[in-house]
Design goal:
Helix content is 71%, strand content 0%. By secondary structure, it is mainly alpha-helical. It contains four helices and no strands. Helix 1 packs antiparallel against helix 2, helix 2 runs antiparallel to helix 3 and helix 3 runs antiparallel to helix 4.
Length: 119
């Protein structure tokens, strides 16, 4: 597991990261059919809203820069999904690109959520 190896320190968010990580791992190991890739990406995009909601419920304002990053990642993921559906991107390559994007995102943005650096 790679994505969930970086802990935020907020159990709900860490568990969601773990679940996404598991879905991507299952896909990469051919344990789920390629047709599941859109559902995995959909779950990932839904996670962004979930993450923002968790912070709101904690009584904190979710940083606008982080929201903007979620919006940007959503656009990138949707574009890559469209490319995959058109046959222009291999599924495994797509998942590897998603892994890299998410790892950078967690390291740069999500870890701040658990550090008390929420503005």
């Amino acid at each position: 597991m790679w994505y969930s190896s970086v802990k935020v320190g907020i159990v709900e968010i860490d568990m969601d990261h773990y679940n996404i990580d598991t879905m991507l791992q299952l896909y990469s190991s051919d344990r789920v059919p390629e047709s599941y890739l859109p559902q995995i990406i959909s779950a990932l995009i839904k996670h962004f809203d979930t993450e923002e909601g968790i912070i709101d419920r904690m009584g904190h304002e979710f940083p606008q820069e982080h929201k903007d990053e979620h919006a940007n990642l959503t656009k990138v993921l949707e574009a890559k999904l469209t490319n995959w559906q058109a046959g222009d991107l291999d599924g495994k390559d797509f998942v590897e690109e998603v892994r890299q994007l998410l790892l950078l995102h967690v390291a740069e943005y999500d870890v701040l959520l658990g550090d008390g650096d929420i503005v």
